[in-house]
Amino acid sequence: MASAAPEPIRGTVDVAGRLTAADPRLARLQEEAGGGLGAMLAVPQLAAIARLASQLGVSLSRQALAATNDADLDLWVRAEPSSAGVALSIESWVEKPPRRQRFRLIEGAEADHAQPQPDLTTDANLRLLHVSAEAAERLDIAPALVRGEPLARVLELLPAADGDLPLLSAVAARRPFEGQSVRARSGTGELVLGGIPRIGRDGEFAGFDLRLAHPAEEHEGVSEPAEGFDNLLRQPLDVIMGEAARIAEKGEGPLRSDYAGYASDIAAAARHLLDVLQSMGVERSAPSAERIDLAALALEATGLVQAQASEAGVSFDVDGPAALQALGEARSVTQILVNLIGNAVRHSPRGKVVHVTGTAGAYVSIAVADEGPGIAPADQQRIFERFEQAEPRTDGAGLGLAISRRLARQMGGDITLESTPGKGARFTLRLPGA
After folding, report:
1. CATH topology for the 9-96 domain
2. Which residue among 40, 254, 292, 321 is least crowded, i.e. fewest CB within 10 A of its CB?
3. 290-432 maps to which CATH number?
4. Are the folds of 9-96 and 290-432 the same?
5. d(CA 233, CA 251)
């Protein structure tokens, strides 16, 4: 593909960050990134270079990575600040074949063989786009004859005992569904339909991927709603974790150590987010018992909350044995500790300290103590119930402590609370010793 540009490609960014002038290639890149002349510079790394040059008031020369619809771009950019803004000069513009698609795009993408293929695929108006060979045989239909037809021409939707139609409710909410009873118009009998939403390139609802099952197969063939939701998020989160880990390992060359540290934090936060989403879904089997180092997990959880603590002006005091061998599941323990430490930070006045203390014994424990307002005796049990909080807040849904206690008890441990109003709160996670 094309290599370095023979002449510099120039553009001008005003003091507000808008691209006010651009050579044709830069203008096209701006358009493909969702902007235009007079709009904010929409290419993230170019915008960051321009902003940094403006803030520092010095000329900068930096590498930048970008992409068009057809290629990945490796750019070398010079930014010259002035009172009117920043003059950009792209002195090297190298196009490379695009990396393989990392997200499963709905429209125009090749089949992702790692994912179970749907029996039926619809557009946003529930018109059939695809019918698998197995579904065609089961429904006794010819795919070519029904393609583009409304789903209701092939399947009759049967209401539940309460009159609900799960598919129509899912269309309205753009969410996964299960348990929609249907009858094939061809007369082949009653079936059960379930599915998950499809998301188009523009991020909008694009229809459903649907699975058919006989009523006896319902629990085997249809995803639970929370599982469908997890699946929608798992792939992008997996990519975030993989890409951040690759950056942290400096897989593509030298990198400032603080940037590598940021990447490690991003990967850890993405792993934690995925675990939280899974725990908010349907009740799952008990976490597996494995040998874990509770002290090491406490340090990891403290690191995940460090940015929140720094912003709140709260510091940590971590104390106890260097290693605490316990039985539990590492990701569940990390989730619990992030919740407990995060709560302590939120309720600590600026300038105070959150104490994270480990203790060995028949039961190994991590205690998280804050210097906040404490919790009234009447609230000390209630806050462990779903959707309950010690005090009305706009952030959070009151699920964290309920989920945390459930996870702890599934691992053979528990979470206890000691608190005196006005003297802070102390939450203790206990797990069986290994």
Report:
1. Beta-Lactamase (3.30.450)
2. 254
3. 3.30.565.10
4. no
5. 25
pLDDT: which is higher, 162 or 53: 53
Report the C-alpha gap between 150 and 155 in whole angstroms: 9
Selection from 100, 112, 110 nearest residue 242 by Cα: 100
The C-alpha atoms of residue 326 and residue 107 are separated, in whole angstroms, by: 48
By the 8 A CB rule, do 281 and 224 touch?
A: yes
DSSP state of 100: P
Amino acid in the structure at residue 59: S
Measured CA to CA, the distance from residue 54 to residue 13 in angstroms comes to 10
Identify the helix (H) or strand (E) that includes residue 285. Answer: none
Average pLDDT, the chain: 77
What is the predicted pLDDT for the residue at 223? 41
pLDDT per position as a tens digit, 102-137:
444 444 444 444 456 789 999 888 889 999 988 888
| DSSP code at position 98 | P
Per-residue b or e along 231-256, where b marks 16 or more CB atoms closer than 10 Å to that residue's CB: ebeeeeeeebbebbbebbeeeeeeee
Tokens of 124: 């946003």
Q: What ranges in 249-374 are assigned the alpha helix state H? A: 257-279, 294-312, 330-346
CA angle 149, 153, 159 (to 5 degrees): 130
Report the C-alpha gap between 349 and 86 in whole angstroms.
42
Burial of 366 (0-12, 13-18, 19+ CB in 10 A): buried
Q: What is the residue extent of each domain of the chain? A: 9-96, 120-223, 231-279, 290-432
How far, in whole angstroms, is CA 18 from its chain's centroid? 30
- Asked if residues 374 and 427 have their Cβ atoms less than 8 Å apart, the reply is no
Interhelix angle for 294-312 vs 330-346, to 10°?
Answer: 30
Q: pLDDT-derived band of residue 385, with 50, 70 and 90 as boundaries? A: low
Class of the CATH domain delimited by 120-223: alpha beta
**Element holding 67 (H helix, E strand):** strand 60-67
User: What are the tokens at 207?
Assistant: 């229809």
